[in-house]
Fold:
Amino acid sequence: MQIHPTALIHPGANIGNDVTIGPYSIIEDNVIIGDGCQIASSVLLANGARLAENVKVFHSAVIGTAPQDLKYAGEITTAEIGPRTVIREFCTVNRATAHSKRTIVGADCLLMAYSHVAHDCRIGDRVILANAVNMGGHTHIGDWAILGGMVAIHQFVRIGAHTMVGGKSRVTKDVPPYCMAAGWEMKYEGLNKIGLKRRGFTDEQLQALKEAYYLIYQTDMLRKEALQKIKDGGMTAEVQTVVEFFESSERGVI
Structure:
């Protein structure tokens, strides 16, 4: 372990092997740091922070502070960071409320500078949040999603897996999987074809998704009618995921 002499480490913190902690960082009680983590200078890992192995936390990031929710009454909750995730400068990740008790960031994610993960959020694996993405509480983001800089996300919104959201967008409704979306008034912008191809989706899978989204967004059918027609025609696993996403939405879908 390489711990700078100016770092403040509470004796109740659990620190793994081969961990680096930089100058003036603060590690509070009830913090767990996995093997191989790299904690830079002036980082705060607050009570309830949980870092899996090989997480990198850059200068002045803050993980595990109390939720910004007036209903929070001091419950014991956590903010959990998955293995190999990178937390860049000045990011903030709040721990959860009693609602779910866990704020979760998955494995192999990249949270760029000034991004904010609010209480009770769930971020999947291999998600990228560009600079200054701001999430309201209880937001759920699926695996492989990419969010552009300065995206603002309303609380309780869901963003589907493999989705790309354009920078400076305002997300007030759910964004379905496998698509691109953008705008101050968020709109569907087509299938995330390039991203899906890079991840090994076949032409047949892409075509099935394209046809499903055509019925949903580019015909005069009511959304309920479009979803029923998709189901009547038989569904691939990916198309079934899309249909289930729409049918389970509580805030409505863009």
About this structure: Residues 196-247 form a domain with the Udp N-acetylglucosamine O-acyltransferase; Domain 2 fold (CATH 1.20.1180.10). The mean pLDDT is 98.
